[in-house]
Amino acid sequence: MRRLSGTSVATPFATACDHRTRWRRGGQPVSARQVWRALWLSSLTLIGLAPPTAAVQRGPELTAETARAFADDVLMTALDEGRVPGALLTVVYRGEVLLADGFGLANAMTGEQASSQTVFRVGSLSKPVTATMLARLADLGRFDLHADTRDQLGSGGFGERHDQAVTAVHLLTHTSGLDVTDVGDAARTPDGLMSLTEFVERRMVAQVSPPGEFYRYTNHGYALAGRLAEIITDTPFAEAAQELVFAPLRMKSTSFEQPPPSPLRERMAVGHEVTNSAIQTLTLDYSLVAPADGLVTTAPDMALFLLAQLEDDRLLSRAARESLHQTRFSYSSEFAGRTLGFEEERSGAQRGEYGVRRFLTHTGGQLGFTSELLLYPDERLGLFIALNRRDWQVRWNVFDEFFARFFPTDRVEPATITGVADMAATSFERAPVPASTFEAVGSMLEPDRIQLAVSGDEMVLRRGDDRTVLRPLSQHGFLSTDLQTRVVLSSAEDQVRNVFVNGVQYRSSPWWTSGETHTLLFVGSTIAFLAAVPFWPLARRARRRSEQEPSEAVWIGRLAATHAALHVLYVVIFVAGLVHAAAAGGFDYGLTPLMIAGLVLPWALVPVTFGIGASLWLAVHRGYWGPVLRVALAGQLAVSALVLVVTFARSLASW
User: Fold this and answer.
1) Which of these, 125, 291, 337, 340, is most buried using a 10 Å CB contact count?
2) Is 363 helix (H, G, I), strand (E, B) or coil?
3) H or E stretch including 153?
4) How far, in Å, CA of 355 to CA of 377, rounded?
5) For residues 626 and 630, what is the distance between their CA atoms, to the nearest angstrom?
């Protein structure tokens, strides 16, 4: 897709929905009680199952001079090696701004230098700002974070599927149950922009799971949060953010306006991408979900925002900051979760490792840009980086090297799992994929599967050829021996239903809802209908030579050939639409006419399929044709019916 999702690489949280499935061993259901008993009893053989501890050490003293030296050394080297033209870097520490400046080039084509006044797009770093804005409204007593937002938003994107209250906490932690999609949330030109009210009314997604159960990263939830702020303040979102957040903090070069105000546009860095080994500039586009990804800002302005998160009382009271940073959702208390607008990390010697340091982070990406914000409350430290090329590895490496230099910590040495009863390998399919839009095709064609098994002294997670050994941290939580992978098993009604790997949900899928089944149907039905297109006209011509067909039989043949041709046409149009959309930059700007045609065509196939059923009855009842043609017609009907039934079953499973 065109933009980054804005989730952390170390502990990614993807979208999720509840699928009521179970583990199986040897074809028989395995209850949660059996699993917990085997694993929990085995963990009693370990020494010291308490969360690991490691000493946070001190590197060189962090000062304005050492921060600048770090940027000149590590950051500039990383930009050069990663072929990233320019960056912003901000460091605040113990109430002081140590560094807030631009580095490299704002525009690689013109050679314009990046400076402290250069404006960058920061994508999903908009979300912590939106969350802070709502936290301030709550701090001012203007609304309750735990109140049902449906009373103010109306049905919005929630529909009538679930009756539970949807609160601002749900919206700000991505647990509202809304589906995830990027389709139609951006515009190529200012003429394509629309208000949040219009977006909510015209382009909201379905609520595919009850609120509070699963983490499902969605820009649409933050669009609703922004709309909620508009309703509370009776002010357009960008103006409300200016009044509630930017003005009190004196953030003079930050805005949610689409397009950005002219004084800021004149100082904006240009996004870049590398194509055929050459760096190219990208044209500015515009967000329709500004509360989720529309922010532009500078390094000094982000320093003010970081200070407000750590200790500046001008914006939020201490109690409000603690509420904002409180863990609101987690699949297991042993592992990090989500706060309002931030993702938790529990970091070790390297950021990808599980450890004792609690970070609050968020990442962002936009056309030609990527960014990250990190808070380390225990040290009163805040970091911000933005790059004018999408390269998450560069920003990740810069922050990792920063902590290795200034705040090193000992690596947690994991224990060894022993004495676990054997358990047959069980396959799980990734569940956090779009469930209510055509993007679910992606999970059908490229299913992501894992296997989890217990054998001897090891609990092993497999993904393809990769093999990861796990150890228990608690009854529900498991950690890999390299400290990189966190696994949580969850149950309901005494059955294991979900496995969460670094926060990503996997489920044990019935065969009729699996991606492999749908891929087989997709390919098989296409071949069947391709064969049917020439088969019916040739068979009809052969019959005409031998005898005169009744008119009804002629029309049945034509209907069957049309049915087959429509199926093949649908496949051709849909695949061509995907290719065309990819060449045009994805679906962020909406659906192309070719894709719309591909999505409308299946509706025409439904009545034709029923017509084939009626035709088969007539062919048998009135004795048309011979057994071979009747079997061919029955096969065509069976394939069509199977495709419809299995697709319907998969849709139901998504709910």
Assistant:
1) 291
2) strand
3) helix 150-153
4) 15
5) 6
